[in-house]
Specification:
Number of strands: 9
Order of helices and strands: HHEEEEEEEEE
CATH architecture of the domain at 47-156: Sandwich
Radius of gyration: 25 Å
CATH class of the domain at 47-156: Mainly Beta
Largest sheet: 6 strands, mixed
CATH topology of the domain at 47-156: Immunoglobulin-like
Helix content: 10-25%
Distance between the termini: 68 Å
Amino acid sequence: MRAIGQIRTANRRELVLGASAVVLMSDLVARMMVATASAQPVQGAGWQELMRKILGDAKPVQGQIKLEVPEIAENGNTVPFTATVESPMTEVDYVKSLHVLSTANPVPAIAAFHFTPLSGRAIVSSRIRLAQTQDIVVLAQHSTGRFVMQRREVKVTIGGCGG
């Protein structure tokens, strides 16, 4: 029986087994990182496919969405945006959903918001992370099935250097 706080020394066998386990685990982690990196989607690929999936056969029209996003983001990690959709928000005609997409992030779907007539207004405000200079696309689906769209370019500077 050992007293609490007493330090135990390892023999050579335990030391070799422990070191071998560390080497094997680090190799396993390195292999998993390589597999994960190769499974990541290519930047820029997929946002059009996602947009087609959201739209189906519908053709979006420009307008009715006020998208506030900075033209130049000095820090791509936290880019603020606000999207407001003009809608009466009645039982007959209201904004059903709002989708925010990026054209160059590894994962193009940034967010999806859902509304009801009880929402009162179709407005969202948040912060997003942008990997590089790209367009932000906002799609709004009305309860009538029609879509409206707005698109803005955001220049992401790295280290405070322009454009």
